[in-house]
Design a protein that fits this description.
This protein is mainly β. Helices cover about 10% and strands about 30% of the residues. The relative contact order is 0.17. Bound molecules: ligand MTE. Ligand MTE binds next to loops. Its cofactor is Mo-molybdopterin.
Length: about 425
Amino acid sequence: MGTARRGSGAYERAYDRDRLRRFLSGEAVGEGISRRGVLRLLGVVSASGAVASLPGIAVAGPAAAAEEPGAPGIVKPLPAALLTVRGTNAETNWAALRDTGYHTPVDRFFVRNHTATPLLDPARWRLTVWGGGLRGGAVEFSYADLRALPAVTTSACLECAGNGRSYFTTQQGDPVTGTPWTMGAVGAARWRGARLSDVLRLAGLSPRAVDVMPRGLDAAFVTGGTDHGRVRRPMPVEKALDDVLLAYEMNGRPLVPDHGSPVRLVVPSWAGIASVKWVGEIEVSDRPLFSPWNTVFYRLFGPAHPAGGSAPVTRQPVRSAFELAPGAVFAAGRGHRLTGRSWSGQGGIRRVEVSTDGGGAWRPARLHDAPRPGGWVRWSTSWHPRGPGPAHLLARATDTAGNTQPARSVPNEQGYFFDAVVRHAVEVV
Ligand code: MTE
Protein backbone atom coordinates (compact mmCIF):
# COMPACT_ATOMS: atom_id res chain seq x y z
CA MET A 1 0.00 0.00 0.00
CA GLY A 2 2.40 2.67 -1.16
CA THR A 3 -0.23 5.37 -0.98
CA ALA A 4 -1.53 4.29 2.42
CA ARG A 5 1.46 5.77 4.19
CA ARG A 6 1.30 9.23 2.63
CA GLY A 7 -0.09 11.85 4.93
CA SER A 8 0.72 9.85 8.06
CA GLY A 9 2.63 11.46 10.90
CA ALA A 10 6.34 10.69 11.37
CA TYR A 11 5.58 8.82 14.59
CA GLU A 12 3.10 6.62 12.74
CA ARG A 13 5.69 5.68 10.12
CA ALA A 14 8.24 4.86 12.82
CA TYR A 15 5.60 2.87 14.72
CA ASP A 16 4.66 0.91 11.60
CA ARG A 17 8.29 0.05 10.88
CA ASP A 18 8.94 -0.99 14.48
CA ARG A 19 5.83 -3.20 14.73
CA LEU A 20 6.51 -4.84 11.40
CA ARG A 21 10.05 -5.71 12.47
CA ARG A 22 8.84 -7.10 15.80
CA PHE A 23 6.07 -9.15 14.23
CA LEU A 24 8.33 -10.64 11.58
CA SER A 25 11.00 -11.47 14.15
CA GLY A 26 8.42 -13.47 16.09
CA GLU A 27 8.12 -11.10 19.05
CA ALA A 28 4.32 -11.15 18.91
CA VAL A 29 4.11 -14.87 19.56
CA GLY A 30 2.75 -15.61 23.02
CA GLU A 31 -0.62 -13.87 22.65
CA GLY A 32 -1.98 -16.96 20.92
CA ILE A 33 -0.49 -15.67 17.71
CA SER A 34 1.85 -17.42 15.32
CA ARG A 35 2.45 -17.28 11.61
CA ARG A 36 0.89 -20.76 11.37
CA GLY A 37 -2.07 -19.57 13.40
CA VAL A 38 -2.45 -16.60 11.11
CA LEU A 39 -2.56 -18.80 8.04
CA ARG A 40 -5.02 -21.17 9.65
CA LEU A 41 -7.30 -18.30 10.53
CA LEU A 42 -7.21 -16.56 7.20
CA GLY A 43 -9.72 -19.04 5.82
CA VAL A 44 -12.23 -18.52 8.58
CA VAL A 45 -12.15 -14.91 9.69
CA SER A 46 -15.67 -14.32 8.43
CA ALA A 47 -17.17 -17.02 10.65
CA SER A 48 -19.39 -15.56 13.35
CA GLY A 49 -18.09 -15.71 16.88
CA ALA A 50 -19.71 -17.65 19.68
CA VAL A 51 -21.19 -15.44 22.38
CA ALA A 52 -20.04 -16.34 25.85
CA SER A 53 -22.15 -14.94 28.66
CA LEU A 54 -20.42 -12.49 30.98
CA PRO A 55 -21.33 -11.79 34.59
CA GLY A 56 -23.35 -8.60 35.06
CA ILE A 57 -23.69 -7.86 31.37
CA ALA A 58 -26.87 -8.52 29.41
CA VAL A 59 -26.31 -9.40 25.76
CA ALA A 60 -28.68 -8.37 23.00
CA GLY A 61 -30.52 -11.37 21.59
CA PRO A 62 -31.65 -12.14 18.07
CA ALA A 63 -35.26 -11.30 18.91
CA ALA A 64 -34.37 -7.62 19.41
CA ALA A 65 -35.92 -6.53 16.11
CA ALA A 66 -38.73 -8.97 15.52
CA GLU A 67 -40.29 -7.63 12.28
CA GLU A 68 -37.00 -6.59 10.73
CA PRO A 69 -34.43 -8.85 9.12
CA GLY A 70 -32.47 -9.23 12.35
CA ALA A 71 -28.76 -9.56 12.92
CA PRO A 72 -27.91 -11.65 15.97
CA GLY A 73 -26.88 -9.32 18.73
CA ILE A 74 -27.83 -5.94 17.21
CA VAL A 75 -30.36 -3.99 19.29
CA LYS A 76 -31.59 -1.22 17.01
CA PRO A 77 -34.19 -1.87 14.29
CA LEU A 78 -32.66 -2.81 10.94
CA PRO A 79 -35.21 -1.73 8.31
CA ALA A 80 -34.22 -3.11 4.90
CA ALA A 81 -34.56 0.35 3.36
CA LEU A 82 -31.78 1.69 5.56
CA LEU A 83 -29.46 -1.20 6.38
CA THR A 84 -28.37 -4.55 4.93
CA VAL A 85 -27.65 -7.29 7.45
CA ARG A 86 -24.35 -9.13 7.00
CA GLY A 87 -23.86 -11.80 9.66
CA THR A 88 -23.47 -10.06 13.03
CA ASN A 89 -23.12 -6.71 11.22
CA ALA A 90 -25.34 -4.24 9.37
CA GLU A 91 -24.29 -2.13 6.40
CA THR A 92 -25.65 1.33 5.56
CA ASN A 93 -27.51 1.52 2.24
CA TRP A 94 -25.99 4.41 0.30
CA ALA A 95 -29.33 5.38 -1.24
CA ALA A 96 -30.54 6.08 2.32
CA LEU A 97 -27.87 8.79 2.78
CA ARG A 98 -29.29 11.05 0.09
CA ASP A 99 -30.53 14.29 1.69
CA THR A 100 -29.44 13.25 5.19
CA GLY A 101 -27.01 16.13 5.68
CA TYR A 102 -23.40 15.82 6.71
CA HIS A 103 -23.84 13.48 9.68
CA THR A 104 -25.16 9.94 9.30
CA PRO A 105 -28.35 9.51 11.36
CA VAL A 106 -27.99 6.83 14.03
CA ASP A 107 -30.90 4.82 12.58
CA ARG A 108 -28.84 4.09 9.45
CA PHE A 109 -25.28 4.13 10.82
CA PHE A 110 -23.49 0.83 10.08
CA VAL A 111 -22.84 -1.63 12.93
CA ARG A 112 -19.75 -3.82 13.08
CA ASN A 113 -19.95 -6.32 15.93
CA HIS A 114 -17.48 -9.14 16.44
CA THR A 115 -20.01 -10.80 18.78
CA ALA A 116 -23.08 -9.08 20.24
CA THR A 117 -24.03 -5.69 21.65
CA PRO A 118 -23.79 -5.77 25.46
CA LEU A 119 -26.36 -3.76 27.42
CA LEU A 120 -24.39 -1.80 30.02
CA ASP A 121 -25.72 0.41 32.80
CA PRO A 122 -23.87 3.77 32.79
CA ALA A 123 -24.34 4.05 36.56
CA ARG A 124 -22.45 0.80 37.13
CA TRP A 125 -19.94 1.22 34.31
CA ARG A 126 -16.29 1.79 35.23
CA LEU A 127 -13.19 2.45 33.16
CA THR A 128 -10.00 1.03 34.66
CA VAL A 129 -6.71 2.49 33.43
CA TRP A 130 -3.71 0.39 34.40
CA GLY A 131 -0.25 -0.84 33.36
CA GLY A 132 3.49 -0.33 33.49
CA GLY A 133 3.20 2.93 31.56
CA LEU A 134 1.60 4.66 34.56
CA ARG A 135 3.53 6.19 37.45
CA GLY A 136 1.30 4.42 40.00
CA GLY A 137 -1.38 1.76 40.25
CA ALA A 138 -4.67 1.32 38.44
CA VAL A 139 -7.07 4.28 38.36
CA GLU A 140 -10.85 3.97 37.96
CA PHE A 141 -13.21 6.42 36.28
CA SER A 142 -17.01 6.41 36.50
CA TYR A 143 -19.37 7.76 33.83
CA ALA A 144 -19.90 10.87 35.99
CA ASP A 145 -16.10 11.33 36.25
CA LEU A 146 -15.80 11.36 32.46
CA ARG A 147 -18.76 13.73 32.08
CA ALA A 148 -17.10 16.11 34.56
CA LEU A 149 -13.99 16.46 32.37
CA PRO A 150 -13.81 19.17 29.68
CA ALA A 151 -16.01 18.00 26.78
CA VAL A 152 -14.79 18.04 23.19
CA THR A 153 -17.01 17.79 20.11
CA THR A 154 -15.60 16.54 16.82
CA SER A 155 -17.08 15.51 13.47
CA ALA A 156 -15.34 12.39 12.22
CA CYS A 157 -15.88 9.48 9.88
CA LEU A 158 -15.82 6.00 11.33
CA GLU A 159 -15.08 3.29 8.81
CA CYS A 160 -14.28 -0.39 8.76
CA ALA A 161 -10.91 -1.25 7.17
CA GLY A 162 -12.78 -3.94 5.23
CA ASN A 163 -15.27 -1.50 3.72
CA GLY A 164 -15.71 -2.24 0.00
CA ARG A 165 -14.24 -5.73 0.46
CA SER A 166 -16.74 -7.45 -1.88
CA TYR A 167 -15.40 -5.40 -4.83
CA PHE A 168 -12.08 -7.23 -4.62
CA THR A 169 -14.02 -10.25 -5.84
CA THR A 170 -16.86 -8.79 -7.92
CA GLN A 171 -14.80 -6.10 -9.66
CA GLN A 172 -11.27 -7.53 -9.68
CA GLY A 173 -11.72 -11.29 -9.35
CA ASP A 174 -9.47 -11.47 -6.26
CA PRO A 175 -10.48 -14.06 -3.62
CA VAL A 176 -10.71 -12.56 -0.12
CA THR A 177 -12.16 -13.61 3.23
CA GLY A 178 -14.34 -11.59 5.61
CA THR A 179 -17.68 -9.75 5.71
CA PRO A 180 -18.60 -8.93 2.08
CA TRP A 181 -19.30 -5.23 2.59
CA THR A 182 -20.11 -3.08 -0.41
CA MET A 183 -19.27 0.56 0.46
CA GLY A 184 -21.62 1.06 3.42
CA ALA A 185 -19.33 0.28 6.36
CA VAL A 186 -18.71 3.99 6.89
CA GLY A 187 -20.51 6.89 8.53
CA ALA A 188 -19.78 10.37 9.82
CA ALA A 189 -21.01 11.49 13.23
CA ARG A 190 -20.66 14.39 15.62
CA TRP A 191 -18.94 12.78 18.59
CA ARG A 192 -18.76 14.34 22.03
CA GLY A 193 -16.69 13.12 24.92
CA ALA A 194 -13.60 13.51 27.05
CA ARG A 195 -10.11 13.60 25.60
CA LEU A 196 -8.26 10.33 26.08
CA SER A 197 -5.18 12.47 26.78
CA ASP A 198 -6.93 14.09 29.79
CA VAL A 199 -7.85 10.67 31.19
CA LEU A 200 -4.34 9.28 30.68
CA ARG A 201 -2.74 12.28 32.39
CA LEU A 202 -5.15 12.04 35.32
CA ALA A 203 -4.28 8.35 35.57
CA GLY A 204 -0.60 9.26 35.96
CA LEU A 205 0.85 8.68 32.49
CA SER A 206 4.59 8.12 32.75
CA PRO A 207 7.18 9.24 30.18
CA ARG A 208 8.00 5.54 29.76
CA ALA A 209 4.58 4.82 28.20
CA VAL A 210 4.76 3.42 24.67
CA ASP A 211 1.42 1.77 23.87
CA VAL A 212 -2.19 2.30 24.90
CA MET A 213 -4.62 -0.61 24.52
CA PRO A 214 -8.37 -0.18 25.12
CA ARG A 215 -10.43 -3.32 25.64
CA GLY A 216 -14.17 -3.77 25.07
CA LEU A 217 -16.71 -5.25 27.48
CA ASP A 218 -18.40 -7.34 24.79
CA ALA A 219 -17.96 -11.12 24.85
CA ALA A 220 -14.77 -12.84 23.79
CA PHE A 221 -14.40 -13.29 20.02
CA VAL A 222 -14.19 -16.98 19.12
CA THR A 223 -13.57 -18.03 15.54
CA GLY A 224 -12.17 -21.14 13.90
CA GLY A 225 -11.94 -22.81 17.31
CA THR A 226 -9.68 -20.06 18.72
CA ASP A 227 -10.74 -17.81 21.58
CA HIS A 228 -9.14 -14.42 20.89
CA GLY A 229 -10.46 -12.82 24.06
CA ARG A 230 -12.20 -9.47 24.12
CA VAL A 231 -11.73 -6.95 21.34
CA ARG A 232 -8.58 -4.91 22.06
CA ARG A 233 -5.98 -3.22 19.92
CA PRO A 234 -2.94 -1.15 20.87
CA MET A 235 -2.13 2.28 19.48
CA PRO A 236 1.00 4.38 19.96
CA VAL A 237 0.87 6.74 22.92
CA GLU A 238 1.40 9.65 20.47
CA LYS A 239 -1.94 8.90 18.75
CA ALA A 240 -3.67 8.41 22.11
CA LEU A 241 -2.50 11.88 23.18
CA ASP A 242 -3.35 13.49 19.85
CA ASP A 243 -7.02 13.46 18.82
CA VAL A 244 -8.65 10.42 20.43
CA LEU A 245 -11.95 10.80 22.29
CA LEU A 246 -13.67 8.74 24.94
CA ALA A 247 -17.05 9.50 23.41
CA TYR A 248 -20.37 9.33 25.25
CA GLU A 249 -22.52 11.18 22.68
CA MET A 250 -23.20 10.66 18.97
CA ASN A 251 -25.08 13.32 16.97
CA GLY A 252 -26.15 15.16 20.13
CA ARG A 253 -27.61 12.15 22.00
CA PRO A 254 -26.10 9.66 24.44
CA LEU A 255 -24.57 6.72 22.58
CA VAL A 256 -27.03 3.92 21.84
CA PRO A 257 -26.02 0.35 22.78
CA ASP A 258 -24.94 -0.77 19.28
CA HIS A 259 -22.52 2.13 18.91
CA GLY A 260 -20.76 1.65 22.24
CA SER A 261 -22.95 2.87 25.11
CA PRO A 262 -22.02 4.15 27.56
CA VAL A 263 -18.50 5.03 26.32
CA ARG A 264 -16.43 4.18 23.24
CA LEU A 265 -13.20 5.34 21.70
CA VAL A 266 -13.24 7.48 18.58
CA VAL A 267 -9.88 7.36 16.81
CA PRO A 268 -10.23 9.76 13.87
CA SER A 269 -8.81 8.74 10.46
CA TRP A 270 -7.80 5.26 11.62
CA ALA A 271 -9.39 1.92 10.76
CA GLY A 272 -12.63 1.50 12.74
CA ILE A 273 -11.21 -1.37 14.80
CA ALA A 274 -9.18 1.23 16.75
CA SER A 275 -12.42 2.85 17.94
CA VAL A 276 -13.15 0.24 20.60
CA LYS A 277 -16.81 0.24 21.72
CA TRP A 278 -18.05 -0.44 25.26
CA VAL A 279 -14.55 0.29 26.58
CA GLY A 280 -14.01 -1.10 30.08
CA GLU A 281 -10.28 -0.89 30.55
CA ILE A 282 -7.23 0.72 29.03
CA GLU A 283 -3.79 -0.79 29.44
CA VAL A 284 -0.96 1.73 29.29
CA SER A 285 2.27 -0.09 28.67
CA ASP A 286 5.98 0.71 28.78
CA ARG A 287 6.60 -1.94 26.13
CA PRO A 288 4.96 -2.79 22.80
CA LEU A 289 1.63 -4.57 23.10
CA PHE A 290 0.15 -7.13 20.76
CA SER A 291 -3.35 -8.52 20.32
CA PRO A 292 -4.98 -10.60 17.59
CA TRP A 293 -6.28 -7.30 16.17
CA ASN A 294 -2.81 -5.99 15.29
CA THR A 295 -1.26 -9.36 14.39
CA VAL A 296 -3.73 -11.89 12.97
CA PHE A 297 -6.34 -9.37 11.82
CA TYR A 298 -5.98 -5.88 10.34
CA ARG A 299 -2.66 -6.45 8.59
CA LEU A 300 -2.17 -6.97 4.87
CA PHE A 301 -1.14 -10.49 3.81
CA GLY A 302 -0.49 -11.65 0.25
CA PRO A 303 2.05 -11.66 -2.56
CA ALA A 304 2.11 -7.84 -2.84
CA HIS A 305 2.94 -7.43 0.86
CA PRO A 306 5.97 -8.26 3.00
CA ALA A 307 6.42 -11.98 3.71
CA GLY A 308 4.69 -12.45 7.05
CA GLY A 309 2.35 -9.52 6.54
CA SER A 310 2.38 -5.72 6.56
CA ALA A 311 2.52 -3.43 9.57
CA PRO A 312 -0.87 -3.18 11.34
CA VAL A 313 -3.25 -0.99 9.33
CA THR A 314 -3.80 2.49 10.71
CA ARG A 315 -4.99 5.32 8.44
CA GLN A 316 -7.83 4.65 6.05
CA PRO A 317 -7.39 5.01 2.26
CA VAL A 318 -9.35 7.28 -0.14
CA ARG A 319 -12.83 6.11 -1.11
CA SER A 320 -15.99 7.39 -2.82
CA ALA A 321 -19.60 6.31 -3.21
CA PHE A 322 -22.71 7.46 -5.02
CA GLU A 323 -25.87 7.91 -2.95
CA LEU A 324 -27.59 5.32 -5.09
CA ALA A 325 -28.82 1.75 -4.78
CA PRO A 326 -27.01 -0.86 -6.84
CA GLY A 327 -28.73 -1.10 -10.21
CA ALA A 328 -30.60 2.22 -9.74
CA VAL A 329 -32.87 3.08 -12.66
CA PHE A 330 -32.76 6.42 -14.56
CA ALA A 331 -35.08 7.75 -17.25
CA ALA A 332 -33.36 8.41 -20.59
CA GLY A 333 -33.57 11.82 -22.24
CA ARG A 334 -33.79 13.97 -19.11
CA GLY A 335 -31.47 15.51 -16.54
CA HIS A 336 -30.61 13.84 -13.21
CA ARG A 337 -28.64 15.08 -10.23
CA LEU A 338 -26.06 12.54 -9.07
CA THR A 339 -24.84 12.91 -5.48
CA GLY A 340 -22.20 11.15 -3.45
CA ARG A 341 -19.45 11.46 -0.84
CA SER A 342 -15.69 10.93 -0.73
CA TRP A 343 -13.36 10.58 2.25
CA SER A 344 -9.82 9.67 3.23
CA GLY A 345 -7.95 8.94 6.45
CA GLN A 346 -4.91 10.72 5.10
CA GLY A 347 -6.25 14.22 4.61
CA GLY A 348 -9.28 16.14 3.39
CA ILE A 349 -10.77 15.59 -0.07
CA ARG A 350 -9.74 18.25 -2.56
CA ARG A 351 -11.02 16.88 -5.90
CA VAL A 352 -13.70 14.46 -7.09
CA GLU A 353 -14.13 13.48 -10.75
CA VAL A 354 -17.09 11.60 -12.14
CA SER A 355 -17.43 9.46 -15.24
CA THR A 356 -20.86 8.48 -16.57
CA ASP A 357 -19.57 6.46 -19.51
CA GLY A 358 -17.77 3.67 -17.68
CA GLY A 359 -14.45 5.52 -17.28
CA GLY A 360 -13.98 7.09 -20.74
CA ALA A 361 -14.51 10.78 -19.97
CA TRP A 362 -14.13 12.44 -16.55
CA ARG A 363 -15.39 15.77 -15.28
CA PRO A 364 -15.07 17.46 -11.90
CA ALA A 365 -17.96 17.13 -9.44
CA ARG A 366 -19.10 20.12 -7.43
CA LEU A 367 -17.86 19.84 -3.83
CA HIS A 368 -20.29 20.95 -1.10
CA ASP A 369 -17.92 20.77 1.88
CA ALA A 370 -14.45 22.11 2.53
CA PRO A 371 -11.66 19.52 2.75
CA ARG A 372 -11.28 18.49 6.37
CA PRO A 373 -9.05 15.72 7.78
CA GLY A 374 -11.13 12.94 9.30
CA GLY A 375 -14.33 14.08 7.60
CA TRP A 376 -15.96 13.51 4.24
CA VAL A 377 -17.02 15.75 1.38
CA ARG A 378 -20.46 15.70 -0.21
CA TRP A 379 -20.51 16.28 -3.97
CA SER A 380 -22.90 16.43 -6.90
CA THR A 381 -22.98 16.54 -10.67
CA SER A 382 -25.62 16.39 -13.36
CA TRP A 383 -26.23 13.59 -15.84
CA HIS A 384 -28.35 13.51 -18.97
CA PRO A 385 -28.38 9.90 -20.17
CA ARG A 386 -29.36 9.61 -23.83
CA GLY A 387 -30.40 6.13 -24.85
CA PRO A 388 -31.63 3.20 -22.73
CA GLY A 389 -29.32 0.38 -21.60
CA PRO A 390 -26.90 -0.53 -18.81
CA ALA A 391 -24.34 2.07 -17.69
CA HIS A 392 -21.55 2.40 -15.14
CA LEU A 393 -21.08 5.47 -12.95
CA LEU A 394 -17.60 6.07 -11.51
CA ALA A 395 -16.33 8.58 -8.94
CA ARG A 396 -12.63 9.17 -8.27
CA ALA A 397 -11.39 11.31 -5.38
CA THR A 398 -8.04 12.90 -4.57
CA ASP A 399 -7.11 13.89 -1.03
CA THR A 400 -5.00 16.80 0.21
CA ALA A 401 -2.02 14.45 0.68
CA GLY A 402 -2.09 13.76 -3.07
CA ASN A 403 -3.58 10.25 -2.99
CA THR A 404 -5.96 9.50 -5.89
CA GLN A 405 -8.15 6.41 -6.07
CA PRO A 406 -6.57 3.90 -8.47
CA ALA A 407 -8.38 1.85 -11.12
CA ARG A 408 -7.34 -1.34 -9.32
CA SER A 409 -6.71 -1.98 -5.64
CA VAL A 410 -3.71 -4.03 -4.49
CA PRO A 411 -5.29 -7.22 -3.13
CA ASN A 412 -4.67 -8.75 0.29
CA GLU A 413 -6.05 -11.99 1.68
CA GLN A 414 -8.44 -10.46 4.22
CA GLY A 415 -9.71 -7.82 1.81
CA TYR A 416 -8.82 -4.64 3.68
CA PHE A 417 -8.35 -1.19 2.15
CA PHE A 418 -10.23 -1.55 -1.14
CA ASP A 419 -9.52 1.92 -2.51
CA ALA A 420 -10.12 1.49 -6.26
CA VAL A 421 -12.78 3.43 -8.14
CA VAL A 422 -16.04 1.47 -7.87
CA ARG A 423 -17.93 0.79 -11.09
CA HIS A 424 -21.52 1.45 -9.97
CA ALA A 425 -23.91 -0.38 -12.32
CA VAL A 426 -27.16 1.45 -13.19
CA GLU A 427 -29.89 0.99 -15.79
CA VAL A 428 -31.19 3.66 -18.17
CA VAL A 429 -34.75 3.07 -19.39
N1 MTE B 1 -15.33 -2.57 19.75
C1 MTE B 1 -15.74 -3.68 20.36
N2 MTE B 1 -15.64 -3.73 21.70
N3 MTE B 1 -16.22 -4.75 19.68
C2 MTE B 1 -16.31 -4.73 18.31
O1 MTE B 1 -16.78 -5.71 17.73
N4 MTE B 1 -15.82 -3.47 16.26
C3 MTE B 1 -14.86 -2.50 15.72
C4 MTE B 1 -15.01 -1.15 16.41
N5 MTE B 1 -15.03 -1.32 17.83
C5 MTE B 1 -15.84 -3.58 17.63
C6 MTE B 1 -15.40 -2.49 18.41
C7 MTE B 1 -14.96 -2.29 14.30
S1 MTE B 1 -14.18 -3.44 13.33
C8 MTE B 1 -15.53 -1.17 13.78
S2 MTE B 1 -15.49 -0.88 12.11
C9 MTE B 1 -16.22 -0.19 14.61
O2 MTE B 1 -16.20 -0.56 15.98
C10 MTE B 1 -17.67 -0.07 14.18
O3 MTE B 1 -18.36 0.85 14.97
P1 MTE B 1 -19.94 0.93 14.88
O4 MTE B 1 -20.50 -0.44 15.05
O5 MTE B 1 -20.37 1.90 15.92
O6 MTE B 1 -20.28 1.46 13.50
